Amino acid sequence: MASYRAVFDAEITFSNDGGLQAQGFRIDIPGPEITDEEIGRLFVTSLDLLMADTVVISNVRIIEEAHKGTRGGPSDPRSS
Question: What pTM does this model have?
Fold first, then answer.
């Protein structure tokens, strides 16, 4: 069975001010058909970000690559 990862840029704003940007971030995904909203949710979960307000995902590429253990993603043993 193939494993997939999303490679993307992200911009997060927090409800208590401030923000975070990422370029070329990779996360495990359950399959090649995934929305930007789902990628954003996995991104916030994988970093344990609290008080995330908005998440904008861009420049998404889906690649076939072995899962690396993204927290909250398909390779997270807690999600089984």
Answer: 0.84
Strand partners, 57: 10
Instruction: Compute the C-alpha angle 12/14/17, nearest 5°.
Output: 125
pLDDT in tens, the chain (80 residues): 789 999 999 999 999 999 999 999 999 999 999 999 999 999 999 899 989 999 999 999 999 988 877 777 676 666 65
Name the token pair of 38. Answer: 């789902």
Kindly tell me the burial class for residue 42, based on how many C-beta atoms sit within 10 Å of its own C-beta (0-12, 13-18, 19 or more).
Answer: buried
Q: How far apart are CA 61 and CA 7, in angstroms?
A: 5
- Contact between 44 and 15 under an 8 Å Cβ cutoff? The reply is no
